[in-house]
Amino acid sequence: MSETIHTLQEFMTQTKGVIYLLALGFLVSFTWFWTFLHKKDKD
Asked: What is the torsional sign of CA 26, 27, 33, 37?
């Protein structure tokens, strides 16, 4: 992480990777939350 970004291409690639990880984390956590809410409804 101590590397410097020299070009716009490097910046866009790193940003895209971070956004994909955030989106994946959101989808996983939203799916868990959705099932948690609906499981509580059935009980």
From this structure: positive
